[in-house]
Design brief:
The protein is mostly beta strands and 310 residues long. It has two domains: 175 residues, no CATH class; 121 residues, Cyclophilin (Beta Barrel), CATH 2.40.100. It has five helices and 22 strands. The strands form four sheets. An eight-stranded mixed β-sheet has the order 21-14-15-18-17-20-13-22. A seven-stranded antiparallel β-sheet has the order 7-6-9-4-1-12-11, with no helix packed on it. A five-stranded antiparallel β-sheet has the order 2-3-10-5-8. A hairpin with a 2-residue loop joins strand 6 and strand 7. The longest helix has 9 residues. It is elongated and about 60 Å long. It starts with a strand and ends in an 8-residue tail after the last helix. The model has no long low-confidence stretch (mean pLDDT 92). This is Biotin-dependent carboxyltransferase family protein. InterPro entries: CT_A_B, Cyclophilin-like_dom_sf, PxpC. Keywords: ATP-binding, Hydrolase, Nucleotide-binding.
């Protein structure tokens, strides 16, 4: 099926990017991963439409997105809690529903959480750059028109949608309990790297005192404000940075490295947040409190079971 214009952007919001699962196997070239900041909400948006969970979605930061439908289609919206309307009538989050040509779809501003994910039955269409359409503005890669561009008013969004209802089911009640995952408790951190080179008092504080999300938070990394972490090890040679790496610069205030992170870094690390913890952190607005919890490798692997969508 040839892709065709399905929506026109009336209002783009603060930052709306097209994301698929990201680029892998390219960090040796200095190319970052990209992909959805909240991988769980991203996967659910596609799952609700009974399609592969890696298909591209629109990642809508803070909300404020308005689209005019140019053709009949089905969509779903997950992630941040916000008002979702179709021609002014409220629509459900975390459910699939139809949109007809000529209707106006609006995502209001988030009341809880930061990022919403809009999936299209049949999938959004965009050019692939290095095997992915994930938008990374800093590197000028991916996005709905290539070059890492965010959505802008007047843009047209392409897709291969059908007006036939997908063979979807409502979200099971047991799964709905999982969807309140964002503020459900401490963020799990798998210790590693240079953790033994921090003072004992620092380690006690890291896992027993509260942290606050700084204003310095974006898709590259999130700074945590709280107790000063005291590194007592020797200097380091730069090393590869996996998703969720918790780097500690000289000021003792850690940075959690997210999807658009640099590929290498030379600051010591406490370890790395689990993928679920990264998804949860991506929905924490600046100023919000959180706590860290050390976990084992087994616990980190068990947390991935939440991606076995019901």
């Amino acid at each position: 099926m040839t892709p065709s214009p399905l929506f026109e952007v009336l209002q783009a919001g603060p930052l709306t990017l097209l994301q698929d699962q990201g680029r892998f196997g390219l960090r040796h070239l200095g190319v970052t991963q990209g992909g959805p900041a909240d991988g769980l909400a991203f996967a659910w948006a596609n799952h609700l439409l009974n399609q592969a969970t890696q298909l591209p979605c629109l990642e809508v930061l803070y909300g404020g997105l308005s689209l005019l439908a140019l053709a009949d289609c089905w969509i779903s919206v997950t992630g941040a809690e916000l008002d979702l309307t179709l021609d002014g009538r409220n629509q459900p989050l975390w459910e699939a529903f139809p949109v007809r040509a000529g209707q106006k779809l609006t995502l209001g501003f988030a009341r809880r959480g930061l990022r919403a994910y809009l999936a299209l039955a049949g999938g959004w269409h965009a050019p692939l750059e290095m095997g992915s359409c994930a938008a990374v503005p800093r590197e000028g890669l991916g996005g709905h028109q290539g070059g890492g561009r965010a959505l802008a008013s007047g843009d047209q969004l392409l897709g291969r949608a059908s007006n036939r209802a997908p063979n979807h089911r409502p979200t099971p009640p047991a799964a709905l309990k999982q969807l309140d995952y964002v503020f459900a408790g401490p963020l799990d951190l798998l210790p590693g790297a240079q953790i033994h080179d921090f003072s004992g008092a620092s380690l006690f504080a890291a896992f027993n005192q509260p942290w606050q999300v700084s204003q310095r938070a974006d898709r590259m990394g999130v700074q945590l404000l709280g107790p000063r972490l005291d590194y007592r090890g020797s200097g380091m040679i730069s090393e590869g940075m996996p998703l969720g790496s918790v780097q500690v610069p000289p000021d003792g205030q850690p940075f959690v490295l997210m999807q658009d992170r640099q590929t290498i870094g030379g600051y010591p690390r406490l370890g790395a947040l689990t993928p679920l913890a990264c998804s949860r952190l991506a929905q924490h607005p600046p100023g919000s409190p959180l706590r860290l919890r050390a976990c084992t490798e087994r616990q980190a692997l068990e947390s991935l079971s939440i991606w076995q969508l019901g």
